């Protein structure tokens, strides 16, 4: 008993010490409260429709059901559109706090011979099964802490605050492909293999059992031969590292697993080891991986004490615009970081569009916005607002727009300081030499007024199979004159012209480009998007657009409610 008390005392002493250290870290933030400015506003929209039903729990549809097809579906379009996103936001009386927290609901639209069927199933993750069994939130998510066992004593519930924060396997972001198998992924250490025919959940995969990382993004990139690249952080006694991961394209034998043979291609130390940047994706050209270190910082000191203080992972993330945004360029063949320090103004970015090489430069296109409050604004209490409160939330979001940067691969030591190193005549982006190995980058806005009127865009997509890592012309995405996407857009990057599909009261999801197998044009194909609505007299539907003309060919109406989701892929058959 005495040894137990001594051990407990030692443990509590350590936590008190950690807590005091945490308070020291917080002093600047507390002082800053007295000089906090009014929230930034980026627009002045009024009268937005309440979209709370799009962030409500739904039931799964485990068996395929027919849809009502209107218009025409091209006979060559055969396959499955797979979508991922949150579908359940509470267990018992306990609710999630953030859009990113909801339990993964997997969707499947099967298209064949002009007929479309729909089904959906919740991912049977460990987190989901434990939540169902205990009727409460058992695993901490991005913005929500797990709920202590109400059957424990008060002391037991208090002591549970001092346990480490578990990592969730709620893979609700995207579908990814490794070695020919399909997985659902989030940004933690876990993925789940899924049978795309039945949507049945299969085995759970842990990244750290194969390589020394503690998680990976849900947006890998692929070489033409199927070699996959991803990025993930690792954490140790000296803080964090960013890691570029390479995964072989094929299985080596029947006993091979998805991550067997994976290796760390390059490790990048953050500017601040205890405050690495949050990132959702990265860019890749033919020969280089491009990582963007944003001024959205993860405070590891706060994360280590978050559960003790009743805080979530989200509470450890802070926008710090006093830092520049930095580009790291890594050679895919050698794993070496180019010795040039590329930096630019602070901006927020979830998704890159494409990257390609031309005349000794890397051109990086991405969706960027001013201000870094977007992650915090996606709390469910904000997304479920109505009236003026909803307008205020939307107007606090920066407009996401396509930006182009140019990164010179080599810097001539004889070039004078102040020289623009961009030799490309087709872009006004600047890369100004500040020193032998330092370049200040200024972006070019690659859009027209129509895209501004559409509220900017997110969820960017291209003809990936043809254009990833190479020059391209056409970009597709979701327009945002609402807090969720309310239009689809097509941007001609050469002419800087935008085409828009929009229907009142309808909210489309990420567009997925499906190429016409017999056509030769970059935009010859189909755009698929799941369009949801809060209107009770109208149906959710799968929209089918002619990608070239950007006009509707048909739609498949679904007789069940579908929540607003994240990402997906098309499996062509």
């Amino acid at each position: 008993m005495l040894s137990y008390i001594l051990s407990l005392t030692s443990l509590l002493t350590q936590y008190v010490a950690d807590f005091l250290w945490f308070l020291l870290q917080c002093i600047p933030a507390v002082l800053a409260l007295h000089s906090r400015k009014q929230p930034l506003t980026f627009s002045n929209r009024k009268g937005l429709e309440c979209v709370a039903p799009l962030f409500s729990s739904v039931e799964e549809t485990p068996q395929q059901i027919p849809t009502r097809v209107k218009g025409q579906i091209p006979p060559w379009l055969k396959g499955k559109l797979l979508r991922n996103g949150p579908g359940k936001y509470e267990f018992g009386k306990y609710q999630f706090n953030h859009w990113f927290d909801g339990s993964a609901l997997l969707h499947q639209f099967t298209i064949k011979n002009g007929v479309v069927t729909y089904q959906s199933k919740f991912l049977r993750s460990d987190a989901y099964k434990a939540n169902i069994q205990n009727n409460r939130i058992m695993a901490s998510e991005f913005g929500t802490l797990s709920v202590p066992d109400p059957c424990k004593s008060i002391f037991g519930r208090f002591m549970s605050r001092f346990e480490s924060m578990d990592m969730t396997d709620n893979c609700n972001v995207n579908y990814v492909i490794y070695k020919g198998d399909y997985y659902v992924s989030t940004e933690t250490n876990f993925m789940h293999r899924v049978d795309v025919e039945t949507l049945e959940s299969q085995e759970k995969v842990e990244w750290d059992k194969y390589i020394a990382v503690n998680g990976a993004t849900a947006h890998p990139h692929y070489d033409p031969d199927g070699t996959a690249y991803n990025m993930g952080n690792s954490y140790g006694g000296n803080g964090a590292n960013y890691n570029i991961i390479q995964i072989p394209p094929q299985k080596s034998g029947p006993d091979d697993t998805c991550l067997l043979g994976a290796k760390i291609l390059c490790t990048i130390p953050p500017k601040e080891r205890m405050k690495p940047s949050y990132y959702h994706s990265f860019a890749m050209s033919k020969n280089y991986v491009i990582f963007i270190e944003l001024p959205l910082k993860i405070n590891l000191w706060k994360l280590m004490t978050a559960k003790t203080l009743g805080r979530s992972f989200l509470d450890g993330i802070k926008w710090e615009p006093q830092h520049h945004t930095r580009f790291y360029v890594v050679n895919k063949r050698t794993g070496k970081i180019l010795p040039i320090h590329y930096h630019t103004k602070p901006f927020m970015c979830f998704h890159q569009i494409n990257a390609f090489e031309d005349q000794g430069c890397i051109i990086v296109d991405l969706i960027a916005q001013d201000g870094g409050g977007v992650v915090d604004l996606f709390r469910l209490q904000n997304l479920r607002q109505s009236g003026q409160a909803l307008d205020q939330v939307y107007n606090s979001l920066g407009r996401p727009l396509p930006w182009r940067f140019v990164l010179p691969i080599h810097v001539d030591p004889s070039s004078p300081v102040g020289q623009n190193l961009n030799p490309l005549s087709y872009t006004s982006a600047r890369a100004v030499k500040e020193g032998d190995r330092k370049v200040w980058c200024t972006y070019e806005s690659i859009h027209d007024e129509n895209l501004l009127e559409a509220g900017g865009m997110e969820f960017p997509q291209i003809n990936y199979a043809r254009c990833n890592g190479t020059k391209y012309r056409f970009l597709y995405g979701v327009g945002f004159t609402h807090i969720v996407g309310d239009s689809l857009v097509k941007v001609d990057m050469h002419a800087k012209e935008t085409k828009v599909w929009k229907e009142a009261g309808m909210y489309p999801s990420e567009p997925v480009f499906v190429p016409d197998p017999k056509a030769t044009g970059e935009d010859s194909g189909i755009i698929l998007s799941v369009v949801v609505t809060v209107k009770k007299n109208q149906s959710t539907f799968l929209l089918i657009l002619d990608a070239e003309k950007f006009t509707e060919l048909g739609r498949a109406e679904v007789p069940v409610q579908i929540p607003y989701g994240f990402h997906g892929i098309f499996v062509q058959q």
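The chain is about 15% helix and 35% strand. The longest strand covers residues 79-88.
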